[in-house]
Amino acid sequence: MRYILRKLGFYLVAAWIAVTLNFALPRLIPGDPVQLIMTRQSQLGPVPPGEEEVLRRMLGLGHGNILGQYWDYLVSIVQLKFGLSVTYFPTPVTTILRSSVLWTLVLVGMATLISVLIGISLGTLAGWKRGTWLDSLVPSTTFLAAVPYFWVALLLIYLFTQVWTVFPDQFSYDPGLTIGWSGEFVSSAVRHAVLPAITIVVSSVGGWMLGMRNMMVSTLSEDYVSAAEAKGLRSRTVMLGYAARNAVLPSVAGFAISLGFVISGSLVMEMVFSYQGIGFQLLQAVSNNDYPLMQAIFLVITFAVLSANFLVDVLYGFVDPRTRLAR
Amino acid sequence: MNAPATGLTGPAEPAAGPRDVVLRARDIRVEYDGERPTRAVRGVSFELRRGEVLGIAGESGCGKSTLAYALTRMLKAPARMTGGSLTFRTREGEELDLLSLDDEELRTFRWTRLSMVFQSAMNALNPVTTIGRQFGDIFRAHRPDMGKDERLSRTRALLEMVGIDAGRTSSYPHELSGGMRQRVVIAMALALEPEVVIMDEPTTALDVVVQREILDEVERLREELGFSVIFITHDLGLLLEISDRLAVMYAGEIIEYAPAEELATRAAHPYTQGLLRSFPDLTGVRRELRGIPGSPPDLRAEPPGCAFADRCEHAFDPCRSSAPRLLDLGRPGGPWTAACHLNDPGHRSAAGAPTTEGRQS
């Protein structure tokens, strides 16, 4: 328990530093970013009263001295007041985030998880049955990982939406449907998610498999694995409880890093599939100088990376007792 | 010496009769595959009697550990057994041919009949699970009808038996000192009350004080539980003290096989004499320490003569042309064999070389 609290404290400090850095960013933009945004917004339509105030607070450029500004900035973040988006004027930034974060999180999160699980399972088997047909499969999966991601994606789109129209080619659900827990909508969302998910899994599973396989092979030469075998334990116990249990540790650390990038790292996928996730929105925000949206997405990514790392740190404490120094 | 050489190629049948023997190895041969295969174990034969400590001594690289792995059928590619037979006689009097056991038979045989303490016992524990859990794995694999509480109480009893606090079942290996880990590993080896325990350099990584404690512990447990031990180490001094009988290995062969008590003063093989000279005798007279010049031969080569000839100060003509066989010296106190032409009456008279007996004072 102390371990978890200590980690939590560490991550809170890291989050605070990230938020504070974000506070400094708008000050580096030449000119007055608030006026810049207001001008763009007024070109698009009538700006609601109070928008300027919200923008100032959110960007940390409010009234008073720097401490007052900093306080206003923190309050607006806690209250999730990010102002209106320029790209989707006059939709509030929070609405855009709400509708895109979940799509990315579910799709990329699930795809990453599936990829890791498949990769680690196959890697375990390939390492255990070293030199068999399964093991000789490993180089071909790294070939898949070496092929550029967008190329795989385009190929799959061509094959499965043009040659055989099995799956829809873009967007995250059928726009004709209303969002909700209806069977029709869910099945539409799943159908739209299959192709992007497959491309993510196909392009990343080889790396996981190779890493796990190699760790497995080096773990198998450890004394405790030979000892487990000499003890006459069942080979399943030796493979999972002794070899894989130790070999998986580096992959867990790797998983932490890739989980953090689930939110931001799917940019190419979301572009190729026109999937309106957070990467897609970030691209829109950057190309439209949409500071409120960018600012909000940066924060979301920061928190996603931090919380993913925290999660895996806790997980790591479970799988490797040596990291639990203080209990 | 006027005792006739009997020409036996292995140790003679023990006087007490074959019933007494728990493990019999005949002509074990192990090769490491390669462009030129390394013949690491070259026709080793021995008999382990019930309740005795058989010491196996030799320099690094002489095939001791490979032999231990062969005995437990733990050899992994590129190593493979190219010949020999292994017979295990159980408490119940059943003869098991270890080399013909299938996977499942082998699995159940391991640890219930024959267990092993590994060379680096420090690393023989799984770092990510608790001690209790690792004992539990053994019981789950071999005593499936044992309940959870029974497993735990047995684990606690085993830990206490080797002088470790029973509360340590919930500790992880990294929370124990080297000596404690060693004790845990020994307790694990005894978990199923095996008939034979192979100890491969079990105390090499420990300091002499802890080493002494552990050895006393092993000795006490052996008297209590009556298992046989094959103790493998390069430390001949240690072996002389704890073993009943001793096999000295050189270049993959046993070159002398003798009662431990008398070996110190009457070693018959020049290599054994060299090993004895290379460590100080704490209780005896002061003498000059001398090592053995040169280094062990390349095990890939196939020299026609004695593998030790190049390093032997007594080498004479036949040593380089024909390989000596293990000959029974016919000494009292059990089988005493040595593979050296100096002990072969035929060669000895031809060369006119003196017998080596009693030369190492």
Number of DSSP strands of chain B? 12
Global mean pLDDT of chain A? 82
Provide a count of the helices of chain A: 14
- The third-level CATH topology of the domain at 1-14 and 21-113 and 227-316 and 323-361 in chain B is Rossmann fold
Helix content of chain B: 25-40%
* Biggest pleated sheet of chain B: 8 strands, mixed
Radius of gyration of chain A: 24 Å
Structural class of chain A: mainly alpha
> Biggest sheet of chain A: strands, sense, closure?
none
Number of domains as seen in the coordinates of chain A: 2
H/I helix tally of chain B? 11
Looking across the biggest beta sheet of chain B, what order are the strands in? Answer: 6-7-8-3-9-10-12-11
CATH superfamily of the largest domain in chain A: MetI-like
- Per DSSP, what share of the residues of chain A sits in E-state strands of 2 or more residues? under 5%
Oligomer: heterodimer
Outline of chain A, from the CA principal axes?
Answer: globular
Query: What is the terminal separation of chain B in angstroms?
Result: 18 Å
Structural class of chain B: alpha/beta
CATH topology of the largest domain in chain A: MetI-like fold
Provide key terms for this protein.
heterodimer; A: 327 residues; mainly alpha; 14 helices; 71% helix; globular; B: 361 residues; alpha/beta; Rossmann fold; eight-stranded mixed β-sheet; four-stranded antiparallel β-sheet; 12 strands; 21% strand; disordered C terminus
Task: Provide an overview of this structure.
Chain A is mostly helical. Chain A has helices spanning 2-24, 33-44, 51-58, 66-78, 93-128, 138-146, 149-163, 183-220, 223-230, 235-247, 249-260, 267-272, 278-287, 291-319. Chain B has a domain at 1-14 and 21-113 and 227-316 and 323-361: 3-Layer(aba) Sandwich (Rossmann fold), CATH 3.40.50.300. Helices cover 29% and strands 21% of the residues of chain B. Chain B contains eleven helices and twelve strands. In chain B, α6 links the parallel β7 (196-200) and β8 (228-233). Chain B is globular, with a radius of gyration of 21 Å. Chains A and B meet through α9 and α10 of A and α2 and α3 of B.
